Structure formats: C-alpha cells, structure tokens
Amino acid sequence: MSILGNFVWSIADQLRGVYRPHQYGGVILPFTILRRLDCLLEPTRDDVRCLAETFDGGALDVQVKRKTGLTFYNTSQYDFARLLEDPAGLRANLIDYISRFSGNIDVFERFGFEAEINKLDEKNRLYLIVSKFADVDLHPDTVPNAAMGDLYEHLIYKFAEASNEEAGEHYTPRDAIRLMVDLLFAEENETLLEPGTIRTIYDPTGGTGGMLSVAEERLLERNPQARLRLYGQEINDQSYAICKSDMIGKGQDVGNIRLGDTLADDKFFDKTFDFCMSNPPYGVDWKASEASVKEERKKDGPNGRFGPGLPPVSDGQMLFLTHLAHKMRPAHEGGGRAGIVLNGSPLFNGAAESGPSEIRRWLLENDLVDVIIALPTDIFFNTGISTYIWILDNAKRAERRGKVQLIDASDMWTRRRKSLGSKRREIDTAAREQIVKLYDSFTETKSCKILKNSHFGYWTITIDRPLRLNFSASRAGDLDSKALSKAFGKSADPAPFLAALAGMGEQTYLSQDEFIEALRDEFREAGLKLTPAQYRHLATALGEPDESAEIVTDSKGNPEPDVSKRDTENVPFYYDGNTIGDVNRNETVKKYFEAEVAPHVPDAWIDTKKTKVGYEIPFARLFYTYNPPRPLAEIDRDLEEQIAKIMGLLREVEA
Prior knowledge:
By secondary structure, the protein is an alpha/beta fold.
C-alpha cells in the first residue's frame, strides 16, 4: 500500500508553487475520494442515468438501491474519462459532477472543494491533476476496501507530516486496533460464528474510520456470513469526509456516520450498541464542550452519561470513558462491551471524591471494568508514552463478576524495520495472540493479576495533631484589621483594648487558660468586656507555635487542631485482610491508625468528619518487581580489578 500511497501523494508535485506543502492534502484527499467513488459507480452509471430520467428525490434513492444495491449515486453525465474530453469546460463540468451526487454525499463541501477547483483552474493545474488521478485505478477489484482504508491513512499521515501536525491525532495504528477488536470479540467467539450473525459497533471519535474498518475486517475473517453495522461520529470535517467515503465503499449505511462534537451533542443519543470502541485525544481540554456537558449533567442527573463525575477541563479522556459505558447495550437486552485506549492518567488522577475518582468508583462499584491492558510504549505515531486499553462489560460471565483483570503487555512487541513518527514498535500477531490468551485463561501469572473491585478502593482520612501555642500581649501591635475585628467586634473601637494589652508587658504564657485569665483581669480593671469566644480569638491571634506549650482547646475542652501539621493517609479497603464494606469502615481505619500512625505521632487523632472514599488503579505498583542492588563485596571486587588495570597501564606509560 505504501507504493500506491506514495504514487498518489506524488501527484502533489504538480502543486508546487501554487500551494505550499502543508496545503497539498486539501487537494489530494478530496480528489482521492472522488476517484474512489468514480470507480465504485462505474458498473452502475448507465442504470442510474436511466433511472434519473424517470425518478427524482426520495423515489430515485429507493429505485437506485433496488436496482444497484448502492445507497448513493451520481446523476451527472460525466466521469473522469469524459471530463478530460473537454479541457476548456473542465472546471464547470467537474463542479457539475460533484454537485450531482446523492444528498447523503456531503464530503466534498467539508474540504471546500469547489474553491480548490477554481484555484487549480486559475493556475492552469486542473487538467493536469484530473488526468493524473484518471490514471489511478481505485476500483474495489484492484484496491479492496481494507487497502483503501490503508491508503486514506497513509495520505493522512503524509498530510500531517507536511503540516507539522501530529499524525496520531487523525488515526490509530492498525496493530493496536486489532488487539482491541479481538479483546472485544473474545467473549462472543462462538455466537459471532453463527450464520447470519448481525452486530452493531460504534466509535464516538470516528476519525477516518480505521477502528470501524478493522472491526468489520476481523469479523468477516472469522465469519464471512456475518454482518457488522458500523456507526461513528467525528468532529473534524476532513476526517469525517474520509470516514464517510470509506464506509460508502464498504456498503455501509452512510447515514450512520455523523458529523459533530460527541461530548456536546451525541448524534446517537437514542441508541446503544453491541460493541463500542474509541481512541480519544490525550490531554486535550474540553472547554469548547464544557457548557453543554455541564448543562446535560444537570438535566440528566446521576443516571446521565456524565452523571458519575467530571474530570478537569484540561483533559477530556474520562468523559469518553463514561460516554462509552452508557452506549453499551443494556444488560437486560444481552449486554454490550466497550474498548477505549487511554494514557495512564485515568488510572489514578484526582484525589478521593474528585471527578476522576468518582468516575472510577462508579465504574468499579457497578462492575463495568472487565480488563485493563498495559500496551508497549512507542506503538503510536505521535507519542511514546504508556497507554492502556480498558475493556468494559455490563454483562460479565459469572467467574468474572466482581473482579478486574490486569494484563501487563508492555514487553509484548516486535521492533519495526522502519520507524513511522514515534512508532518504533508494533504488536505483531504472536504478541496479540499471547495477550488474548492471557485474557481468555483468566488465571494469574507474572503478567496477569486478577483483583476484586474493592481492592482499588480506599478511604482518605485526615490526621490532626494538637495545636500548641505560647501567648504574649506584646504582639498586639502586629494584629491586622481582620484579627482586631474578630477579637473585639466590627463596631468596637480597638484602641482601649490595645492600650490595656500594652500594660501587660512582655510576659509569655505557655497555657491558654492562664493567658485568658490574665486578659480578663487586665480588661476588668480597664472596664472592658469580651465574650468567651472573643477571648479565644484574641488569644489565638496573640499566639505563636511552641512545642513546649500546653495544648490549645476549644470551649468544650477538645484539642484544637494544628492546621500546619494536618496530614492525610489513604487507607486501602483491603487493609489487614478485613472484610470490605461501610459497616466496618471504622474498624479498618482504626486498625490502620493504631498500626501505621499512632506509633509515630501518639498525640494525633482522626477527624472522622473529613473522611472521603476514593478509587485508583495503581497499575505500575501492582506489577512492580524489586531488584536488589548488587552486593557491596561484588562492587568492591570489580573496582579493585579496574584499579589494577589502570595501574598496569600507568606503569607501561612510565616504562
């Protein structure tokens, strides 16, 4: 395919001087689509022209499908060959040709194609470009659907490369998609082989259609009599146009490929699917969708697709995660499965009860996470970072219920002979089969962990230590207006109080009660009064930290916390082997505190009102293997050997 791709891209050489390199794609891509459609329509062109003489509009749509089996058509008298017969009228005839496609072919307007045709004609390049594409045979008999998808993606990569864009923003490597598809299909291996099987699959970040295409290919490889109906939504105009064109060639219903922002406007709001898959952008903000997302969450409540929680606006990955969870066919209708590629952030980002933690909590407590696979690094075109496939399932088999399988496939790869951007490695057939086998076996190994959902939960407890202050009236001159207002009241004149404080001298008190009593005596003599709460506010304002001082208490005699020493601890649900559940939370937390905290800070306590529930998936920590350092004796021996070599060389030089 790279040969055909390079040949098609070489046509861009004719654009030099008229276009800059980063503009080539705006011409090459729509012409490639047009040539593919031209080749697809060739066998039925005469039939359609005859039908168009009798029918129009919706009636023509029905008649064309009945006669040809196609869901699209073109009623123009032109094709690439006839266009070239009239060089003088080429511009007008070509515009007429693209305007005569059926209404469901809206791909060319996404490229602003008519403007490009006018520019090419003005610069005397139009005939040359059309003639070059006329020589490219893109008929399905020559270039099958799978190869055509590869061609589109090759051109997208070349376009992105010339534009200094990230190619990975446009499509996902086929090896990663094949792995995800095989994992999605793994639980339906037998039913997918039944004759006449029909399934649906959906990609909310459709891109150029690569994921949908691979899913169809993989199913047809197993069962040529099966039918996979493809659905997708894409926000980028040009990617949408390519995706739709690719679906046309596959005989799919092009109305199932829709343009729009999935987060702000779900074009399939009334549908769920057997399978869902997505590779959303990593670390990309969702500010443009923020108002719509928050409005929908407010309207739909906790049961809506964004009900579990919202991640930071700086990264929208987890919004697609919850979106897919809601697009799976309900369990009572047979259930659905979803696969999504994410970076490492959604595994652990966010503190307890933050948006990301609440999303994980919802997924795990509803038993939706089936397996998470750590992929090798350097398998994507635009990033070498660690990535993970999450597989969701809302109708797990009995042995998988209440559990999550983790597979470390980070070392299951082969090196590419030639790098493509950041892609230096690939998941070959052997590696893919190894990963799927680990999944199917559902047995713990060095590369596979199986854990209860509750294993990922924890309580964040707040640890406080007592406040210890010494007190001195001599610090009154340093009090700001806020402290004065709090101690003496907003309407009171602080001057008499400050004068009384000045008469107390430099004495330092280590006891809060003794200092307050001294204040009362001084103010009584001056004819001044404060409430008990005001005395405490004033004492605190005149205090400084002092570990040798007594503990500061509130009005009920309880220790006041020292905010500067406040700390938090995460207590795993499974700590010390305790049974998990809210009913024994206090017991578990108490055991943790007594074993892990109290021995180090005996005066500490837990502020139970601040305890929060959190969930995280510490993937790397779970697979970490400790490698002890080399023994010192071995290191010393190596050093002595090297020193001996160096000394020998020095003696040779001196000799």
